[in-house]
Design brief:
The chain is α/β, with parallel strands linked by helices and 207 residues long. It has helices spanning 22-34, 45-54, 63-74, 110-118, 124-134, 150-161, 180-195, and strands spanning 9-16, 37-43, 81-83, 102-108, 138-143, 165-166. The protein has one domain (7-195): Flavin prenyltransferase-like (Rossmann fold), CATH 3.40.50. 40% of the residues lie in helices and 16% in strands. A six-stranded parallel sheet has the order 3-2-1-4-5-6, with helices on both faces. The longest helix is centred in the C-terminal third of the chain and has 16 residues, at 180-195. It binds flavin mononucleotide. Flavin mononucleotide binds next to α2 and α4.
């Protein structure tokens, strides 16, 4: 029997932008599906290029087809994943009254980081992040760039002061990862911790 939206835990928005590390975002979506959350997904044009470069996934651009592809790969129930287009200003995330309780931009390009720090709101990802900030909702950005310029650092500081969480895609090595998947899980576990979502991706420090 098809699931209804009410059967899922509250929606969490996940935006993939064009920084390296598409696997972090895809794994995050899978984990949120497993924990029973509804997941609202936005994928930038550049992120589609990164997905094609870094993974074997073939993700369609059209939101309805994208949602079906993500549902298939993550084993989600129908309706558990919704996808929104770049300029879908009617999407719930575009307004404070419809926004999800938390948003994660993972990975976050320095371009999107800059746009969020300056309130550009030129596409739905930027607008949704702007809404999260104004509504004082949880906003987590997972930038991946190195080295960082003063521009990047200033934007991160601006956002941290506004209450956003800057969570760089910087996997540690003290858990002795055996695989890329272990390194991806290191970062995704940190994101889930910030969202207050229980997981068993890896033991917590001291366990
Ligand atoms: C394969 C690939 C890897 C990239 N890696 C990075 C990266 O690690 N960090 C970054 O900030 N931009 C990276 N870029 C550049 C961004 O995709 C580019 O600045 C783009 O305009 C970002 O747009 P978006 O923020 O709308 O996704 C990469 C681009 C490609 C195609």
């Amino acid at each position: 029997m098809a699931e209804t939206a009410a059967a899922f835990k509250p929606p969490i928005s996940v935006a993939l932008t064009g920084a390296s590390g598409a696997q972090y975002g895809l794994r995050l979506i899978d984990c949120l599906v497993t924990t029973g959350h509804e997941v609202w997904v936005m994928i930038s044009k550049a992120a589609h290029m990164v997905v094609a470069t870094e993974t074997t996934e073939a993700l369609p651009a059209r939101p309805d087809k994208l949602a079906q592809a993500l549902i298939r790969r993550s084993g989600a129930a129908q309706g558990q994943i919704r996808c929104f287009a770049r300029e879908d200003w009617m999407a719930p995330v575009a307004s404070g009254s419809g926004a999800s309780s938390a948003m994660v931009i993972c990975p976050c390009s320095t371009g999107t980081l800059s746009a969020v720090a300056t309130g550009a709101s030129n596409n739905l990802i930027e607008r949704a992040a702007d809404v999260a900030l104004k509504e004082r909702r949880r906003l987590i950005l997972v930038p991946r760039e190195t080295p960082l310029s003063a521009i990047h650092l200033e934007h991160m500081l601006t956002l941290a002061r506004l209450g956003a969480v800057i969570l760089p895609a910087a996997p540690g090595f003290y858990h002795r990862p055996d695989s890329v998947a272990d390194m991806v899980d290191f970062v995704v576990a940190r994101i889930l911790n910030q969202l207050g979502i229980e997981h068993r991706l890896m033991p917590r420090w001291g366990e």
